[in-house]
């Protein structure tokens, strides 16, 4: 799966929490979310002259728009490795939860 196909798949399954997402699909979408965030921050700085400590309306809107598909692809990725989607709530634990989720997201798919 390439970058464009992964983005199209994730955005077409905007809020679909059932099914599976392969490792490339998840990581290409994570890269897309990061690039959109950086692009939004650059636009905020150019248009509004705001920095990270100030309000960044474009970046915040982009993050809000991509939150649901990011959670959906994360849950589908957990399904792909044989875990329940509710494990995604571990991300709410500041360090340990994030490291556990990161470890699971790099695991190969299971049948």
From TrEMBL:
Record keyword Iron present: no
Q: What Pfam families does its record include? A: DUF805
Coiled coil regions in record: none
Matching InterPro entries: DUF805
Q: Which UniProt keywords apply?
A: Membrane, Transmembrane, Transmembrane helix
Q: Where are the membrane-spanning stretches?
A: 26-49, 55-73, 85-106
What's the superkingdom here?
A: Bacteria
**PANTHER family to which the protein is assigned, alphabetical:** INNER MEMBRANE PROTEIN YHAH-RELATED, INNER MEMBRANE PROTEIN-RELATED-RELATED
Protein name per Swiss-Prot or TrEMBL: DUF805 domain-containing protein
């Amino acid at each position: 799966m390439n970058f464009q196909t992964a983005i199209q798949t994730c955005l077409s399954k905007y809020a679909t929490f059932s099914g599976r997402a392969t490792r490339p699909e998840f990581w290409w979408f994570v890269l897309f979310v990061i690039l959109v965030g950086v692009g939004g921050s650059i636009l905020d700085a150019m248009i509004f002259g705001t920095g990270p400590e100030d309000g960044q309306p474009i970046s915040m809107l982009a993050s809000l728009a991509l939150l649901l598909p990011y959670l959906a692809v994360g849950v589908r990725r957990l399904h792909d490795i044989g875990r329940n989607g509710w494990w995604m709530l571990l991300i709410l634990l500041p360090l340990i939860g994030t490291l556990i989720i990161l470890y699971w997201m790099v695991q190969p798919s299971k049948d």
